[in-house]
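Explain this protein:
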Amino acid sequence: MKAIVQDAYGSADLLELRDIDRPVPRDDEVLVEVRAAGVGPEVWHLMTGRPHVARAVLGLRRPRNPVRGWDGAGRVEAVGAKVTDFVPGDEVFGNCEGSFAEYARAKATKLAPKPANLTFEQAAALPVSGMTALQALSGRARPRAGQKVLVIGASGGVGCYAVQLASLYGAEVTGVCGPGGADFVRSQGAAHVIDYTRGDITDGPHRYDVVVDNAGLRPLPVLRRVLTPRGALVIVGGEGGTAFFGGMSRGLRAVLLSPFVGHHLGNLVSVARREDLLTLKELAEKGAVTPPVDRVYPLAEAAEAVRHLKEGHPRGKLVVTVTTG
């Protein structure tokens, strides 16, 4: 089968289209014929091995799994001996490690039936970013109707879903984005937009009940300054920071500080869960959540898709198409 493979950590220049053996699913896994795969920050982290502390799990010297891709959508080709939820031919979406390939293995517990009203490309844009946004806006950070929510990085993959979900919950959403992104962020449900090149989140008297930070650039004291006295901050992922720890040190400081202040300060590293995928499926089929696909690339151009992710400031999600049968 054809797949996008890398032999060492580094830039997108190391990604190669090769013929490799088709994977064989384990007892609790599903073999998915991949139709499309999402391109998000998780792909860049896997490709570069950053932050370096993550290499304890990803592979110390080189990627443990050389095939890139983390989420996708397609049809079930085969199932392991212990899988009872899916049969060959089912259309699915979810966490498929190594999804930049014609076939990928996936834990059955990290897949769900594909939303019936979505294309494979749209469905591939939903799992990781959608689940991350859903988990970010949960617990004490789930906004109530009428509350004010600030989403930093609102035009990106996670950010656009956070805007959609917060608006769905009845919050008044302000999105932070770069030049030219305001119309897109408003189209996702934001009532207000801040262009970070022309203003700052601390400008003016505005305070927010929930802040979701997807960008990883602002110091913790700055983020706390725009919270209401009992507001909640969710730092998403490990963006920014040093090569070794990434943004994890900022998130750790937030978690350690939280018990001693009035704010609820959290750091989110999302986990793929079928129950969240089923929630997203239901919301997508109702039209309450819509995957915004910025651009679609063929498998052979996956490296260019990753470059665009880091340099092109896509609005919404990038997707790689794999098979079209």
